[in-house]
Inverse folding.
């Protein structure tokens, strides 16, 4: 009985950890390398030692939210970690090239298809989180955080000019939080198994005989990298270029709607690696054994570098594209005028003398 219980627990833990994208150390590496890619004109206060540790620690935050039994959070947060691209055609007759950048508009389109053809989406008693058949919301998680970051830079600029030291410090802390958590989702986007229904073993028709085991995802996330000695951070850092603004058709993608299109193109590129990963596993190139087993290392380490590069570009684009928050500027100007008027009134008020001083 105890043996059966132990096996059950091990199975549960394996299922939980298999749904991660990269391990914590790899996510930290992505965020730290992204910081290293930023140009010198990026705010220094967001790149100093304390800021680096904050951003690195927050790389694991969205995964920490998954360590819960509360269904509302599991349902909401779990979907933000992946985007199974095959689901668009398999269930919804949609194309990844023309999706709405608005999360709930996309969700409404999905709901309409499910209402029209309920037989395609039978209930599953094991679907406790109510996420089955949903493709996920990873691209929306990235672009929504981009928009938050852009907003944060907009009001930081105003606080730095007209705010108190405390307001400036809090605005910077807000930006670090968004930068750190956003980095997790960009890291997820470069783990190819987070773009596919074959996220943990090949499913459905399998003419090429790819592996179907349920440990494949966790092996890609970190098992393989740990076995071969881990990432070589210095080597990855040396290969980074300086972060540059994102471009769409040769034009800087400043608006979040355009950034969404860039993100979708980026995800489509990562999706192309799904089958090659399964082929490398089948051929023994993902085993970590001998020279042949090391052939997957440059592929996976390059994905980490790619995540860092894309993340740095996203951060920089948000910073350079952020307009001044004129509403806040007007509010702070009014606050200043009110304070000056109060001071002037206080100075103009006649002083009274005590009777004892007459």
């Amino acid at each position: 009985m105890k043996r059966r219980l132990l096996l059950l627990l091990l199975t549960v833990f394996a299922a939980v950890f298999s749904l991660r994208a990269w391990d914590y150390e790899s996510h930290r590496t992505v965020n730290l390398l992204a910081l290293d890619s930023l140009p010198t004109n990026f705010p220094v206060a967001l790149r100093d030692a304390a800021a680096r540790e904050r951003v690195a620690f927050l790389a694991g935050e969205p995964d920490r939210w998954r360590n819960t039994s509360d269904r509302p959070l599991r349902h909401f947060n779990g979907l933000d970690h992946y985007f199974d691209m095959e689901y668009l055609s398999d269930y919804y007759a949609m194309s990844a090239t023309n999706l709405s950048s608005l999360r709930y508009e996309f969700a409404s389109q999905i709901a309409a298809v499910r209402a029209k053809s309920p037989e395609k989406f039978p209930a599953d008693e094991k679907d406790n989180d109510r996420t089955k058949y949903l493709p996920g919301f990873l691209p929306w998680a990235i672009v929504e955080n981009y928009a938050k970051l852009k907003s944060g830079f907009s009001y930081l600029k105003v606080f730095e000019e007209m705010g108190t030291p405390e307001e400036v410090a809090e605005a910077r802390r807000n930006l670090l939080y968004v930068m750190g958590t956003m980095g997790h989702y960009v890291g997820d986007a470069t783990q190819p198994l987070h773009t596919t229904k074959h996220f943990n073993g090949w499913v459905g028709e399998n003419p090429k005989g790819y592996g179907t085991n349920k440990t494949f995802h966790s092996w890609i996330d970190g098992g393989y990298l740990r076995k071969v000695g881990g990432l070589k951070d210095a080597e990855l850092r040396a290969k980074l270029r300086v972060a540059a603004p994102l471009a769409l058709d040769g034009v800087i993608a400043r608006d979040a709607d355009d950034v969404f299109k860039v993100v979708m193109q980026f995800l489509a590129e990562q999706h192309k690696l799904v089958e090659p990963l399964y082929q490398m596993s089948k051929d023994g190139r993902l085993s970590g054994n001998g020279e042949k087993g090391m052939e997957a290392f440059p592929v996976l380490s390059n994905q980490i570098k790619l995540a860092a590069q894309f993340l740095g570009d996203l951060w920089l684009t948000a910073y350079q594209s952020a307009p001044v928050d004129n509403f806040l500027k007007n509010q702070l100007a009014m606050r200043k005028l009110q304070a000056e008027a109060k001071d002037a009134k206080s100075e103009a008020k006649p002083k009274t003398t005590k009777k004892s001083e007459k």
